[in-house]
Amino acid sequence: MSAVTADVSRTGGFAETIQRFRSRHASWVPVFAAVVILVAMLIGAQAYFGNFVTPRVLSALLLDNAYLLILAVGMTFVILTGGIDLSVGAVMAFTGMLGASMLSQGTPVAVVIPVMLVLGALMGLFVGVLVQYFGVQPFIASLAAMFAARGLAFMVSLSSIRVEEPAILWLQSTRMQGGPGSFYLTPTGILALVVVVVGILILQFTRFGRTIYAIGGNEQSARLMGLPVVRTKLLAYVISGVCAGLAGVVFTAYTGASYPLNGIGTELDTIAAVVIGGTLLTGGSGFVLGSMIGVFVYGTIKTAISFLGVDQSWTRITIGALLLVFVVVQRLLVARTARTSR
């Protein structure tokens, strides 16, 4: 009888441990779900195509989505505060157009890249000021910035500007690999991964990062605690703007040219990747690592669609379906957390 009691006790203790882990790490559940989906997609694609999970394809996954990964890091900061930034695609196009124009006029790269980053930061600051000091909703404020940035891109030039600067093209053309057919990296991919690491370190190990989470969790409580809410939210939008400017550099290197219509819809792809990666649209919960997984899910879907040879509209349909699933999962998690906290 004592042995049975011990077994029941052990089973109950194990179940209690699992329950305690889930309650303490509920914010990681969507991230794990995104990882499972990514692995399942890779396994399924490999089984169907036979040559999907190869060093070349996996390398291209990072190479083709480096700019999106950078945008996703900046967007994670904004969404964690409970905001949104619809201007990132247009800012990427504007900074890319201006940078390409300056390069075509002989301006040194050492001047062009900082100018692109500063302009991105100023656009982000513009959105943050509208939100914080004028009480404009983030959706409307960033929408206004999106139209402004797109208009500025057209003011630079109505046509495409080809980039022939070796230093910019080097970012994309250089392949760093260990041997024939092995996994390779490009400077743009390395730059994107560095941005991810910096984003993780800031959010997880700095007071600024903890304040970001506190604001997203409950802004009023954050104010009552004496946290610098206004400054933090402004900096979140500035970070998003800087990431958009840096994405402008990376995307210009990726395409070898700039066009005022570049980046249309990219802001929605970025938001989708961040949400699929587990960041709550209401703020307060999410991780840069999850956003990176979300970008890879997006890239894997796009690559699989290309392998199938069907219309790329199926990428949008699939992403939309996944986005719906993850939003529903998030709502269920929030509701369950609310019930547990009562």
From TrEMBL:
Signal peptide: none annotated. GO terms for cellular component: plasma membrane. One of its GO terms (molecular function) is transmembrane transporter activity. Keywords: Cell membrane, Membrane, Transmembrane, Transmembrane helix. The chain crosses the membrane at residues 28-49, 69-97, 109-133, 139-161, 182-203, 234-259, 271-301, 313-334. It holds the Pfam family BPD_transp_2. It comes from the Bacteria. It is a multi-pass membrane protein. It is found in: Cell membrane. InterPro entries: ABC_transp_permease (IPR001851). This is Ribose/xylose/arabinose/galactoside ABC-type transport system, permease component. It comes from Microbacterium oleivorans.
